[in-house]
Write a structure and sequence with these properties.
Length: 450
Amino acid sequence: MSAETHAQGAVARRDLAVRAAVEQGLVGGADDAPPLVCLLDTAGIRASAAALTDAFAAALPPGTPVLHAFAVKACPLVPVLRLLADAGIGCEVAGPGELALARAAGVEPERTVLDSPAKTAAELREALALGVAVNADNLQELERLDALVGAGPARSPIGVRINPQTGAGAIGALSTATATSKFGIALRDPGARARLVRAYLDRPWLTRLHVHSGSQGVPLALIAEGVRDLHALAEEINAAAGRRQVDTLDIGGGLPVNFASDEPSPTYAQYVGALREAVPALFDGGYGLVTEFGRSLLAKHGLVLARVEYTKSTGARPIALTHAGVQLATRTVYAPAQWPLRILPYDAKGAPKDGDPVAQDVAGPACFAGDLLATARELPPLAPGDLIGVPDTGAYFFTAHYGYNSLPRPAVHGFTVTPEGRVRFAEVRPAQSLAEIVSESGGPLRDALL
């Protein structure tokens, strides 16, 4: 099935889900209906997982060990991790909280990878005891692992993260392979390559190498360049060792997402194609592979639905005041040029809204002027009771709530559409209650400072 066909199916499911969410009382204009809900398309998530696994399976010799590990930070919701595990995807975790989520989802330690630039000794001990794979970030962490692993073979696969220093993409804050990135051991610094080779020769239990050169705004060619450098270093280490010491390459993730339309672009097949062009030996079966995709697996399968509470005009600019803002789309609000989102207008019954477009702002509920999802966006005139849909928010948006103004976390529901067109919802995360907000804010300890 083509990417275009997948996109058309996703749009059809989305519109059915919006109408059903209103009809079933998950969101709407009635006083007793929630003003905000977040939806996840389970069929879309499964399709993304299949596209990833199929792209690599088609390019590798049969039997090549491959672990596709989902970057939990992109969507730290246990039912989502469980769904991905059922689709053959493991977990990449960046701390004890994410490891706890992966374990709660039933993801096996051998299908889990721990990456973090600041692992504590306790975190390392837990990972090693469980058999979770570990990627060390720096030489000091390797010295800490020396004491934990000892002279014998490690239960966990252990590797080292390198920074290939291949350069930044369009979003500097997300670029992990710059000359001064905080991540990994800088490969092009004077003497660094020799120190890395020596570190492996001194530690026979180091059997992996890791790089993460991709992210939003990074072109495929630049991502592939980092993977090429990783493969070359593995070959150098193995030649120096006189044996196949490094047997697995963790090539990270970071496939960019298209936020401008419903088309999934670039695709995993295109990503694999770029890798095959840059480093064809990666696909000869000589190394096992690990990937760590996050945003590209989940982003396009999430939708925010928010009620328009009021409309007004200020300085001749129409403004729609909604319940979706910085608490859900933090990156868009603080960096709108780098993280633009589409706005899909629906009427109060959940039907797509038509009309001559008018430039209008779409604002959130937070108490600061910059809480805007869109500025001067051409949309049919919005009215109180209408709904706005914000697509492509299934990763790093509503999945990672920002507690500005103590705004409660909205409910998240997954949905499936039957062949007959019926929509079934399953609660993924309940809406946060006011009592929970008070408790998390020290309510039970109110007299502690008196």
